[in-house]
């Protein structure tokens, strides 16, 4: 097979596919599901191959025969939707993390806590960079550069996994993939695997239905996004959701049976001339003009925090978000740090007043290796903190705290318990 030709045809098909994504997004249409996109790509491949064959005939050259055309179509499809030698790793349901430090230094983390070294994923570092560039060109809503001028990359792979890559500031190109093993996940699933108790599951459901604003905090890879998905899946199907993310990851729009009216926004990076960027803060502001029932911000990492908190205090109750933090109480200082770096330059006191008016509950999730259980990696909710007011700083009460059972248990009265009771929260009842 002519790999140069496959590469050229793949680029043509990928450009048309990306153009269709942009048109759908501009027209407010529901994004294609993964399978629909693959079917559409097959039709595009047929069109491009037909155009190529006509061009060959016009130029007096022999067009591909049926067998060659079928091989070209398969090669283009694999180049678009496959990830080369990474594909078998992404298809293994037990793998949680893949770290690549150069093409032949591959470290695999399993759900049971095992860490093993894997086979090379490319013949050379140059081939590894090219693979990442292909993924960057055709994943997400817009092409993302990965080169000397743009040595950092974050994106969501077609299977929902999260990829982060870097080059030139490291001796060899490196990437990390965090697997989305639980795509369609519900609170009952997390109760079943010991992430939290049934009572906290009932609390989460009631808090969502009562339209409480919830911030989920934790360290890297603690399970924040999975918990956010499970909580969001309790939102009634008739509500219009708008998600705002740096790189598409939540994938709530991929399940129309749960969220038929869902629009996913993705931050756009500037082009090579430094133009065309659309920031997270701008997207949050834009989302408020599109009639959302709720706005969900995938991960707060910067100045979008002020815009989001303002949105929460302007009638967009029931919002959800995640943030990196080391404890539930540290979340307030982390938000204040982001806010003081924003264009508004909010002082700490003003930020704390904004937090108190915007956030109802902070949930902290963490992970640990249970060596007594063979090194199994376990994730669990260890704290739920209710924001109760402000007095120079945010006042809060830890309503669920880590107990001897290994996850959070009731620790203090919930001030809005009567409101939550209207939506089924009854600690003594139990059952789903």
TrEMBL record:
It holds the Pfam family T2SSE. GO terms for molecular function: ATP hydrolysis activity. InterPro entries: P-loop_NTPase, T2SS/T4SS_dom, T4SS_GSP_E_ATPase. Residues 86-354 form the Bacterial type II secretion system protein E domain. This is CpaF family protein. Signal peptide: none annotated. It comes from the Bacteria. Belongs to the GSP E family.
